[in-house]
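Retro notes - structure team

What went well: the batch runner handled both jobs without manual restarts.
What didn't: labels got mixed up in the shared folder, which is why I'm recording both outputs here explicitly, each with its sequence directly above its tokens.

Job 1
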Amino acid sequence: MTNLQKLCLVYFVALMIAASLNYIPGLTDENGLAFGIFALDIYDDALHVASALWALAAGLISHRAARIFLILFGLAYLGDGIFGFFTGYGYLDLGIFTNQSAGIDLSLGRFLANLPHLALGGIAAWAGLRDASRAA
């Protein structure tokens, strides 16, 4: 098993944890915000579970599948995090279609709310693209 495949398995675990945050007592506040920062709903949970299963499959199938997952997943989540930072809502959970834009907010809260997608997406895209450039 290659390092990219192992990274996909790490993503599987991380995404399943993300999908379970609403269901672990004490992790959400009285307003339903996980860690008091961001709200997760059924669409977020479905997105995280689907992404986790994709990561698991890619990690188990092959190095090439892992690289493709990391690039596509990474760019999608990174873009979602950037979009969410500037509008308040992302596109992967359909938030831009169900909510009016909250506008630009350069606050720490907005940054922290989008940090998981920025970090997960950035690391995945970097790992997949770095490997792709080495293979070329």
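Job 2
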Amino acid sequence: MRQTLAWGVHAFTASGAVIGALALLAIAAGNLWRAAVFMLLALAIDSVDGTLARAVRVRDVLPTFDGRRLDDMVDFLNYVIVPAVFLVWAGSLLSWHWAALPILASAYGFSQDDAKTEDDFFLGFPSYWNVVALYLWLFDVSPLVGTAIVALFSAMVFVPIKYLYPSRMPVLRRTTNIACGLWTLALSGCVLVPAQTASIHLLALTLLFPAYYFALSFWLGGLHRSRS
């Protein structure tokens, strides 16, 4: 039973890659709305699979299977490749060449031994390109502004600032995860029913959670100082 549950959790994580492929197909078909829905679904899967893995203790039950490597592969697809293609098709960049910045920066970030610090923080901007892409699309920013924002966050991948790992926070974990859940629901509403949510300025209100995330990251994490 434990092995069945453990494999089920890994299959759940891997399903995120299928969702990512569906998002790419939707983008290629010119259906950005459908692609955005798939991106949100992939985000939801990634938000809970780590908690499920720790609850089932997959590392102890299946010691020869590297769940972290699986998670990294799925995350690189859904947090980097899919949103980079989305940015190009949405017209959020001055040209497609600029999409290379987040891809190259994130390839560097994902490959670092200390991409996640010993005290459970992400080191450098944690490649939330799906969130960046969705906001640039929903706010319909100009290609110049979109390119500037993408260039800024690409540079932040290399700045050794520690960012929150929500499911492993030492304090305010429950508050942050509840806020993250509400934010995901609100952002989903902005994608699914934009006309209704626009009347209450819900999209602008959803920016409160990213602001909270960055502020708390700088407070609890801040600049990483190597022990060497």
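One thing worth noting from job 2: The first strand starts at residue 121 and ends at 123.
We'll revisit the folder naming next retro.
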